[in-house]
Amino acid sequence: MKVLGVVGSVRRLGNSEILTKEALMEAEQEGAEVEILRLTDYEVRACQGGGTCLFQGKDCVIEDDARFIFAKMAASDGSNAAGEELAREIIEEMDGWW
Question: How far apart are CA 82 and CA 80, in angstroms?
């Protein structure tokens, strides 16, 4: 079993990352293969809403790291996502992912 931890916090080693690592350590103790991705380590641009990926089955026209992240998510059996909430708004790094 593969479990992916996705951290959207801009704070390295902040609470979101610590909690994600704790969850992944538990999964690892149960025999899972674990990996952590920090969204701030990747370039992910906002969707332009062209719909070529959705309606035409083509790859996204935006050339960023989203395909890599989606591939990691698809290859995982489970995931854990964490990001901070600032002033009742989800941070930009997590917006659009969930």
Answer: 7
Contacts of 86 (CB under 8 A, 6+ apart): none
Give the number of domains in the chain: 1
- Encoded tokens for 83: 């990001």
Residue 66 counted as domain residue: yes
- What type of residue sits at position 44? V
Sign of the C-alpha dihedral computed for residues 39, 37, 97 and 81 taken in this order: negative
Asked if pLDDT for residue 78 goes beyond 80, the answer is yes
Q: Which two tokens stand for residue 69?
A: 């992240």
Instruction: Tell me the CATH number at 27.
Output: 3.40.50.360
